[in-house]
Amino acid sequence: MAHHTPPPPRICPACDGFASAAVTLGGRDHRGHLRTITAHCPACQGTGTARTRRNREGARA
After folding, report:
1. CA-based diameter of the chain, in Å?
2. What gap in Å lies between CA 58 and CA 49, rounded to an integer?
3. Which residues have CB under 8 Å from 29's CB, separation 6+?
4. Are 18 and 6 in contact (CB under 8 A)?
């Protein structure tokens, strides 16, 4: 019986799969916590995977 394996995930070339990063804003808040924001990759919108492109033949003939 043949086992079907799923295709490997397409990793985003812009972020190499690390789609989100915590960036410090500098300083701390009144409770002593470090202030950070989360920045997402603009190419993959924070998913870490690239879209698959389908080449449709005859669509622009």
Report:
1. 63
2. 28
3. 35
4. no
Which tens digit of pLDDT belongs to each residue from 20-61? 999 999 889 999 999 999 999 999 888 888 876 655 566 555
Paired residues of 40 in beta bridges: 20
Pairing of strands 20-28, 34-40: antiparallel
**CA pair distance 51, 12, nearest whole angstrom:** 8
How far is it, in rounded angstroms, from Cα 11 to Cα 24?
26
Which pTM was predicted? Answer: 0.57
CA distance 21 to 11: 16
